[in-house]
Amino acid sequence: MTDPFVVVGGDAAGLSAASKCKREDPDREVVVFERGQWVSYAHCGTPYFVKGEVERLGDLLSLSPEEITERGIDLRRGHEVLAVDTEAGTVTVAGPGGHFEQPYGDLLIATGAHALTDPIEGHDLDGVHTMHGLDSAAAVRAHLFDPSVDARAAVGGEAYVDTEAVERYGRMAPPETVAIVGGGYVGVEMAEAFTAHGLDVHLFQRGDHLVPPFGEAVADRVAETPGERRHAPPRDRGRPTDRRRRGRPSSLWRRRDSRGRPRAGRYRHQAEHGLAGGHARRTR
Length: 284
Prior knowledge:
This protein has helices at 12-24, 46-51, 65-70, 134-144, 151-155, 163-170, 185-196, 216-223, 265-272; strands at residues 5-8, 30-34, 74-77, 80-85, 90-95, 98-103, 106-109, 128-130, 177-181, 200-204, 228-231, 235-236, 239-240, 275-277. By secondary structure, the protein is of the alpha/beta class. The protein has 2 domains: 5-109, FAD/NAD(P)-binding domain, CATH 3.50.50; 128-277, FAD/NAD(P)-binding domain (3-Layer(bba) Sandwich), CATH 3.50.50.60. The strands form 4 sheets. A 5-stranded parallel beta sheet has the order 8-14-9-10-11. A 4-stranded parallel beta sheet has the order 3-2-1-7. It has a 3-stranded antiparallel beta sheet with strand order 4-5-6, with no helix packed on it.
């Protein structure tokens, strides 16, 4: 019997591949490991959930876990793949019952991108968010509610959502000022979402223009959108620079005093009142 087709990651790419495999070879075992609880959701819709155009988290789901199981796919949520042994053809998995080895015939790693917070100091402060996945979207939206609102009931997704994070941010006073690090798709869409809530929005972008995959013409049109303040890094010969941190990736250029020391006060103040970062892929 052919060893299973094993997929690491239960969102769009992973489940699309798993479903295609099952359609083409119905008798083959297909196992999907997902570290979290959410599967098959529209990540691109999360800024619109924060904005309020999408009312509940469940509206962003494409397939429920039950529908995935009905396709004959062995979906295992709450299981994290820790290691791959290509010689043995196995993956090491940590699940609710402990660690175990899962053999595979074919393996697909479909974990996608993840939010980057280094080297930004203070990214672990309360009120600092990354924007990646439905749990982070729920936490950001809960932070925008007045503490008198039942945030857990308002965001939806009761069966899967990180209720601890939603309740914690729901108890905080909503922010008045928001700093967004990153002017790509997510950063620009989040700026629109926060502006719709009447917040004072500051958008920090490292590169030459917003939404880098598009050209300058599109970026200029995006930059004309009212409601956000955009901050670009200092420039040297047409390239972004930071003299003390030259050569290291950073989306946040901090002001410095007369001795060249960072002035963290302004940005720490903004971070304490809600900072949403975009997501990026590590290429190395």
